[in-house]
Amino acid sequence: MDSFTAITLAVFLPFVLAGILPMVGKVLKNRIGWYASAVAFLSLMLVAWVAPAVIHGEDIHGSISWLPSVGIDLSFYGDGLSIMFGFIVSGIGLIIMSYSNGYMSTREDLPRYYQQLLFFMGSMLGMVFSANLIQLFIFWELTSITSFLLIGYWRNRPLSVYGATKSLLVTATGGLFMLAGFLVLQSMTGTFDIPAILQNESMIAVIKGHELFILALLLILIGATSKSAQGPFYIWLPNAMEAPTPVSAFLHSATMVKAGIYLVARMHPIFSGTDAWFILVSGVGIITMLAAGFLAFRQTDIKGILAYSTISQLAYLMTMYGYTTHQHPGIGVAAASFHLLNHASFKACLFLVAGIVAHETATRDITKMGGLRKEMPVTFILAVIAALSMAGIPPLSGFLSKEMFYEASLEMGQALGGSFTYMIPALAVLGGVLTFAYSIKLIDGIFLGKRPAHGLPEHIHDPGWVMILPTALLALLIVLFGLVPSIPSHYIVGPTAGSILSETADLHIELWHGFTPSLMMTIVTFVLGILTYTRYESIAAWQNRFNSRHPMISVNYFYDAAVDNAKNITSGFSSRMQPGTVKTYVTALLLLLLVLFIIPVIQISTDVIPAGLNFDIPPYEAILFTFMIIAALGAALLPRYIPAVISLSGLGYLVSLLFIYLSAPDLALTQVLVETLSTIIFLLAIVKIPQRFRERMSTSVLTKDILISSAVALTVFILMINATQGIVSPFESLSHYFIENSLPLAGGHNIVNVIIVDFRGYDTLGEISVLCLAAFGVYNLIHSRGEGE
Amino acid sequence: MSTAGIVLEVLSNVFLVVGLLFVFLGMLGLVRLPDVYNRLHTTTKIGTLGAFGVMLSILMKVGFSPIGVKAITVGMFLLLTAPIAAHMISRAAHRHGVGLCDESVIDEYGKVNTLKKNE
Amino acid sequence: MISMFTLAIIFMVLAIIPCIYRIIMGPTIPDRVIALDAMTTVIVVMLGAYSFDQGSVFYMDVALVLSIIAFVGTVTIAKYLDEGVIL
Amino acid sequence: MNNTLLSLTIAIMFGIGTFLILRRDIVRVIIGLSVLSHAVNLLIVSTGVFYGTKVPIIANDGGHGVTEETGTIFNDVLSENILAPILAPGHSVAYVDPLVQALVLTAIVISLATTAFILILAYRIYEEYGTTDIKELRRLRG
Amino acid sequence: MNSLAQHLPIILIATPILMASLMVLLRSRPQFQKVLNISVYFVLAFLSIVLLLQVWNDGIQVYEVGEWGKYGILLVADLLSAGMVVLTTCISLLSMVYSLDYIEKRSLSSTYYPLFNLMLAGLNGSFLTGDIFNLFVFFEILLLSSCGLVIANEHGGVTKISDKMEATFKYLVLNMLGSIVMLIAVASLYATTGTLNMADISVKLSAMSAAGTMPWHVFAIALMFIVVFGNKAAIFPLHYWLPDVHPTAPSPISAMLSGVLIKVGAYGMLRVFFLIFRDTLYIFQPVIIYLALATIIVGAISAVAQNDVKRLLAYSSVSQIGYVFLGMGLGSIYAITASLVYLVNHAIAKSMLFLSSGAIIHYAGTRDMRKMGGMVDRFPMIALFFLAGAMSIAGLPPTGGFIAKFVLFDAGITDKYYFEIGIALIFAVFSLFYMFRAWLLMFWGEIRDTEKYGDYSAQKASPLILVPIMVLAVAIMVLGLYAEPLIALATATAGQILDPQPYIEAVLTRVVR
Amino acid sequence: MTTTITKTVTRICLPLVILFSISLLLAGHNNPGGGFIGGVMFASVIALTYVVYGLDHIKSFFDPDWGNWFGFGLLLASFTAFAAIPFGHNFFRSAVEFLHLPFFGEIELVSAGLFDIGVYFVVIGSLLFIFKSVGDDR
Amino acid sequence: MKRYIFFAAVFGLIWCFVHGTVSLNNFILGLIFAPLIIHPFMPLYHFERGFSYKKGIKRIPAQIRYLYVLIKEIIKANIMVAKIVLQPKINIKPGIIAVPIRTKTDLGITAIANTITLTPGTLTIDISDDRSVLYVHTIDASDPENVASSIRDDLEKYVLEAFE
Ligand code: NA
Ligand code: NA
Questions:
Q1: Which residue, A87, A712, B64, E253, shows the most beta carbons closer than 10 Å to its own?
Q2: Are strands G95-100 and B106-107 parallel, antiparallel or unpaired?
Q3: If you count residue pairs, one on A and one on E, with CB atoms under 8 Å apart, how many are there?
């Protein structure tokens, strides 16, 4: 099995095996979770299978023909970045699915749960290994959809539905913009293939100089930030916490939300090294980092705190990937890549802890907890490891990546110079302080202090091994990465950074590296962090006060206002657009017709009125014309139905008389008959419609209608004189053939009738079908009475 | 042309002229006479006779060729149907309360209808 | 040269004027119906004349049909006026 | 067949029909459609491409051969690269254009069918809503 | 004995007409009607695919009705028309199967079968005809058959008959007006060129254009066809009838109307402008682009405003057809391909959505989504299928709708129509919003009306109703996951559309008796 | 109710017009007329009897299912068109035959005539179907 | 059966007339169509009543006489009404009068009613329910008795002879 096959299998096996999961579920019943775990394990093994080659600097790239017409193949690409994500996705997937065996009640719809988890995992793997932009987008949106379904897992709960909707709207919409960005990118490069762009320096140069550069970057970043809950798009993530906790751990902390980060990392070689990149990526990152860290204080739901913390931590990553200068495009790449790995582990671990706590205490409200360390000692230890890692306490992995973040911030500040030299590190430290504070809050709030008198179940204890073991595994990783940083740095972070920077990154991550400025910053962070923590409650109280006083100062407010009022806003538009009366619609049609007629009159015509018009007619025809107009006017203006219909009937007879003069006896015959019949049918209908309604026409309405009518008349007139007199058709007509062949070939003297039944008998077949249709329609009309209610 | 032919020709032209005149007069009556019933007199009688005259004239001119035969068929048909049309319309008009003109001196039909209504 | 029948046709066209007048001006519905019926009679005459003038039997067919069918129409309207129903 | 006054008449009928379909009363709208269909039928007939005046019925000789000179020179033979034969000069036809008549016949029948349907529809609408005012219909709608 | 295969075009049109007459005569044998009709539809669907393969392998197929060459009426099956016919017959088959349990029994056997058959004939006839007046005739068949079907009775229908009638009235008036405009245009075209055969007209106009004697009114005529076909396709500002008509029709008919019928307009536009009025394209395209954008915007915004699920779907059809026309307006081969792919995907997705909403409405007893909720527990399959359809309309992968939007946007951006694609993109977001809003309101959330729920919980959708929905849902996914055949077909079709010479030659170089 | 006078004349007209309609139908190929015109004549005169005698009275002894009429007409028309296919021709290919009968002389038989009869039935059937449906509807 | 043959013969003739060519071929064609047409409408034509050719043939002279009177009266009527129309000032005294009649058969009543309508200044408006009185509008109703008696004596006599 070659590496490409392995990756392909790693991506598609989850889909296939999830597809048959409902069948398997019939056999395994409540143990179906282990089946899902096995699938995740399989994917993990497949990723591990290809990892060595990638670590040794070999890129995997292969494709299967999929949409050759559009130039898109199903192609996969494995480099350091992909492999790291591959490990995170499948590894955490394995952990989560195992954990779920303990967490999910057997009363739940387990097949649906695991099926969607596996679909998600497959999509995520597909996304990170995608070698072309469109394929990436496809898997990207698939993750949005599966996330939507998983958030709404408890689909009858309004809050779940709300959260699911929000996440879908934000992420899928962002995805569409990202797609547009990809298309713009493709219009610059002519290819959707990512490696082809990445490996082509000149192409990247072209992109950077292209006038659409900013547009492409902006569109792609909309996708990335919406997915990673950055900037104003953060709003969906807190509400996504309605999902079952393992889902939150998996999707909304460890993997899916990192898709945006993945995209930024992926696009890093293409867009970085420009001011726009730094301003947009790091700018959004820093703002989000601070805002989300700050907003976490107000949360009382454990998962809420974790959600804001996730947003904030992802913002770290954004910030770091955004650090760039023309000379040194990847200042923060290594730091970011390492922190990414660490965040996946400590945040997933925290979520699992949160899950355990909620599972045991039946609440997620941190204000109702406290002092659980005695009852749940194991959980407590695991939580402390993860939280302290997040807070950046040595010797845990989080400390290392935070140090690297400070280093990169210093470097970036120096590179920028001026006031940035201090501002950027200062902001980084501020972020660290906030992180420190809420990390401590988690431990303190849940496990330390006094057990509240009411609200918690009597017997609280550590859960069974099914839930502890996966959590412990993550905690172990945190400790391991902290103590032996060379393992991640050598096997994961190095290749990742290397693949982004397309140069072998020389990483030396060590626990102790002397009294560097970054260590100073860390110390400052701790000090300030502890100070901040003492003010934690009052800050939270202030936030609550502020929020209730100024509800409008919030992105959520606008989201809710937009979504809730979407219907009202649009229905105003819709009812204005669709007033409902035929008259408006007819007017619209006629106006369009007139406008369309005017276009060629203005643009093309030389003579609107052709020369040599023929006014020569027998006098009786002229009189006949007058009669016709009078009869038509009668039909139009006589106020009551019957006189109008009689007038119309008169018009019909006059028309048939005109047909006589036009040498069309067949037509005259038909017209006479049809006229009489339609008069009878008019009567049939009017019999049942006593006339009560008479339209009052205001002068303005009348003027408008007469104007439109006159314009229509004029249009028809101009068209007719041009079509019938303006040119003499220089071609032979079909009629020549009919006249010539009616008798010899079709055996009929009456050419019109021969056309009707023979030359164009097919038309007549249609025509009699129409007659039948009228009959059916009338039958339906008559028999619809009372039965449709 | 034989004598019979000439006689036929003259007769035919007379019929034509008289027929046309009658048709025209009938239509004139439509404008001039005061009420529905009187107008019906002119259209059914004069119009029909006029039309019949013209058809007869055509028959005389062309003999029993398709045109002639059809012409006389048309004439017969008008004679058959015109009175019915007149009858139906006048009946409807009267029963629907279209009154006689002021010059009218008697309405025995109206009395009957009033009696019926009162019952 | 204008044939006699051409004159006839022009004369008949003039005969339509009163019919149109009544159709439009009424005053009662029966008036209009009579006028419509009368108009068909005039048209029948015109068709006859035209048929002869053109030497073509085809128009006579139209006249024949019109004379029959107009009757149907008039009777229907009359019944409607009288009884308020048709069938 | 092509005459400016005829075109003018037809155009005016179009105008009147248009005015009618802009009314609020359903029955008026239907009358308007009828007027329009008369107008369009006349329009089609007036677009016949010949200048002949004879009724397009070949005189009957009792047999089945062409005895009457139809006046056409039919030479629309498709040869290579000539897909659109240009009419020979001095070419005239004694008949009026039969094709447009056939088209109008079809159009008349179709409009009869449609008119019948829409009239019964109008009656049923009146029955359901108790009015033929289009604006009222809208208001009365559930 | 000549091969039946050469008669395929006419069989696809005339068989439904024959069937309509048989169905009238067999009114008293409902069971026989059912079996006969369904089997014939199966055969027709199969034959239409055979026809498409024929065209694919042997080139454009021309069928001379009555063997009069271009002087009579020709049926022309090129990739476009044959493809449309395949779409039509397949969706018709599914809708018909669905109807068997959905339409009220008496209505079904008395008028529904013949009306439906004639509608199918009208569709196939419109797609296959090579004669512009014949197109008018078949349009009329379509018009009246759809009117008749809109007022057909559903089982325990929730749509008030008065609403149906009001909608039908609007539909009729606007379409009769459209027919009149079409007649004016066709007659003027005949006066100018002396022919009704589309290929012939095309050649003659080209000859005039080449000679520099093309009269200006040809442009006016050409633009009139925008009104004609735009009215059928419901593009702005001719879309007004659609949101009234499509929702009030019985659901299988809504599926046909939104799925296939409005595509006739798009087809007509492609046929007429790219075959006949090639010399006017430079005026047509900007016009149609702006109309398409307006259509997209109006449809999308209005769809958001709806509470009635079928009305929402109808507005969405308006918006979506705008995308089809946008592709047409962009005009490159890739854009036309996109337009066609879009057309097919929308047809399938929208038919599916109407059918599934029908099933839901059938049991919920209301079309108001706010009164529904939590139906996923009762109808898990339909919820899933509806989701697939919603994703397709919203343009999300892995559905066909994504491929369609992607190809369209790609084509637009390749040709540097940034502004147009920008608008299209923004309103694609609207479609995401309204489709998922509908899905959520119907299937998720609290169970709104317990009494109603009790009613429909007792029943399950019958297989005859479920299977067509499922087939279409599978098609949506297949077109998303394996779009290559469709795109290849669409590309070849677009090639034929942009280069009509083979069409013209196939039609005009024939021996005439 | 209408009067005796009208009824009597209607009775006279009825066969006359039906004959005329058949005449128009058969003449159609060579003279003005044809299936549609003939059919409308037929339908009109039946409508006239409906009007004059009242629908119910006529239905008491003459109540054909007009639906079957147009069903048959459409069937006939499409069969005629299809009939060419077994003969190795295209749909709607017409055939002209001249039949020599001892008494009538030469009679021209055209397949299109059969089609026209189909049209005739469709027109009669559909129009009267509409009339009757509406008339039955109280 | 007799009636059938009678009708068939009449129809043969009518066929010739509507066809426009009076010939044996057409007559026979009409003959063939007749039974087909008449059959469904039998109840309208009183097939149950007796029918005899003798009576029919005997009536022919009377019918011719009736036709003669009719034409004479029609011409008189037209001239009279034409005069009225052409008067510079319309001066008439119209009215509706009741005219009792003796005729009992449908055909007779119809004939008399139509005759009245086609003759001078009179117009049948309605027939009473018991079919014994015709209501006639006359353009000169100054002497109703006179009008009624002239109808009875000059017209009805001939109608009775011809159709009863
Ligand atoms: Na009409
Ligand atoms: Na949309």
A1: E253
A2: parallel
A3: 321
Tell me the ligand closest to D114's alpha carbon.
1
Region E407-435: mean pLDDT is 93
Q: How many domains does chain G have?
A: 2
C84 touching chain F per CB within 8 A: no
Q: Which residues 66-95 of chain B have a CB within 8 Å of chain G?
A: 66-67, 69-70, 72-73, 79-80, 82-84, 86-87, 90-91, 94-95
Q: Which amino acid is at D86?
A: I
- Tell me, yes or no, whether G39 and G74 share the same domain: no
Is the pLDDT score of G121 beyond 50? yes
Based on the structure, what is the number of domains in chain D? 2
- In the structure, what pLDDT confidence band is assigned to residue D89 with cuts at 50, 70 and 90? low
Distance, in angstroms, between F17 CA and closest chain G CA? 9
**DSSP assignment of A372-390:** TTTT-HHHHHHHHHHHHHH
pLDDT digits (tens, 9 = 90+) for A100-134: 999 998 888 999 999 999 999 999 999 999 999 99
Cβ atoms of C67 and C42 closer than 8 Å:
no
Distance A394 CA to ligand 1 centre (A): 95
The range of the structural domain enclosing residue G14 comes to: 2-58
Q: What is the ipTM of this complex?
A: 0.94
Same domain, G53 and G115: no
Residue A648 alpha carbon to ligand 1 centre in Å: 7
| D11 plus D31 within the same structural domain | yes
Answer yes or no: do G102 and G36 share one domain.
no
Has domain A579-728 been given CATH number 3.30.160? no
Q: What is the pLDDT of residue G141?
A: 78
Indicate if G42 and G100 belong to the same structural domain. no
Judge if D41 and D59 occupy the same domain.
Answer: no
Q: Confirm whether D59 is domain-assigned.
A: yes
Interface touch C73/A680, C-beta < 8 Å: yes
* Distance of CA A685 from the midpoint of ligand 1 (Å): 13
Token pair belonging to D72: 């056409």
Q: Looking at the complex, report in whole angstroms how far the Cα of residue F68 sits from the nearest Cα belonging to chain C.
A: 21
pTM, two decimals, is: 0.93
Among G58, G73, G105, the domain boundary falls at G58
CB contact under 8 A, E148 and A722: no
Among candidate residues E228, E230, E272, the one with its CA nearest the CA of residue E129: E272
Q: How many CB atoms are located within 10 Å of the residue G75 CB?
A: 16
pLDDT bucket at D91, cuts 50 / 70 / 90: low
| Unique residue bearing structure tokens 């028999």 | A783
Distance CA A239, CA G106 (A): 91
Give burial (CB, 10 Å; 0-12/13-18/19+) of E498.
Answer: middle
Domain that holds residue D91: 52-96
pLDDT at E457: 46
Mean pLDDT of chain A, nearest integer:
90
Chain D within 8 Å of E240 (Cβ-Cβ)?
Answer: no
Task: Mark yes or no for CB contact D120/F36 under 8 Å.
Answer: no
E165 touches chain D (CB under 8 A): yes
Q: Which of A458-462, E93-97, E264-268 has the lowest mean pLDDT?
A: A458-462
Chains sharing 3 or more CB pairs under 8 A with chain D: A, C, E, F
Q: Is the pLDDT of residue E158 over 90?
A: no
* Domain boundaries along the sequence of chain A: 277-534, 579-728, 732-789
Average pLDDT for A637-662:
92
**Do G76 and G157 sit in the same domain of this protein?**
yes
Give E264-306 as a 3 state SS string: HHHHHHHHHHHHHCHHHHHHHHHHHHHHHHHHHHHHHHHHHCC
Answer for the pair A757, F29: CB distance below 8 angstroms, yes or no: yes
- The string of pLDDT tens digits covering residues A371-425 is 888 889 999 999 999 999 999 998 899 999 999 999 999 999 998 888 989 999 9
Tell how far the Cα of E315 is from the centroid of ligand 2, in angstroms. 8
Q: Do G26 and G100 sit in the same domain of this protein?
A: no
CATH, residue D129: 1.10.287
Query: For D103, which of E133, E163, E512 is closest by C-beta distance?
Result: E133
